[in-house]
Amino acid sequence: MKTIISHYSPAFPRSTIRTWRTVPGPRPDGAGTSSGRAVGGAAHTVLVSATSPPGWPAAVPPPEAPGWQVPAVSWLLDHCPPDYRAYAGWRRHPVALAWVARRHIDAQLVGMRQAYRDVRVELGDHVGPEGLQQVMADLEAEGVRLLAAQRSAALLFEAFSGKRFVPRL
To answer: What is residue 157's predicted lDDT score, i.e. its pLDDT?
Structure first.
């Protein structure tokens, strides 16, 4: 099967990708032939859709989409220190990048939790009450973002490791 075009559509959720594929044989409705039969290996185009598991990064196409690895590597590099882009090995071995990105995000989450625990004691004298509330709200929001990134990085690691995601009924 050869992919002709793939794109996101506002009619479908973000986690769904629409892909048109050329498949051998006649169209099911018999259209395109004079007798309703395929002539000489005729082919037709069908719509297939791949869905991504809950927590999959919104910027990365589902794992069944063609070429999903390139945006996945970019997403992982966005969640690592900028210097990681200088190493070619991460792009050549995306499963290794996903592994190290998970560790990096885990460490950030540990640091964010520790900062949230210590902020009142260490900054209470230096920042007013309204400033302290704002700092705590910002730390909480960052913690939520990091939890989502942790889940997404784990899913990317599983996908690069060969796991196939099947939608539940």
So the answer is: 97
User: Which whole-number Å values give the CA distances from 119 to 1, 68, 138, 146, in the listed order?
Assistant: 56, 40, 11, 18
d(CA 77, CA 117): 29
Among 73, 65, 58, 62, smallest CA distance to 19 is for 65
Q: Is the pLDDT of residue 36 over 90?
A: no
pLDDT, mean of residues 158-165: 91
What's the pTM value of the predicted model, to 2 decimals? 0.69
Q: Which residue has the tokens 């989409």?
A: 65
In the chain, how many H helices and how many E strands? Answer: 4, 3
Q: What is the DSSP string of 65-119?
A: STTTHHHHHHHHHHTS-GGGGG-HHHHH-HHHHHHHHHHHHHHHHHHHHHHHHHH
Beta strand 16-24 with 43-51: parallel, antiparallel or unpaired? Answer: antiparallel
Sequence-separated (6 or more) residues with CB below 8 Å from residue 161 = 95
Q: Which residue has the tokens 């999959």?
A: 56
Q: Could you say which DSSP state residue 132 is in? A: H
116 touches 139 (CB < 8 A): yes
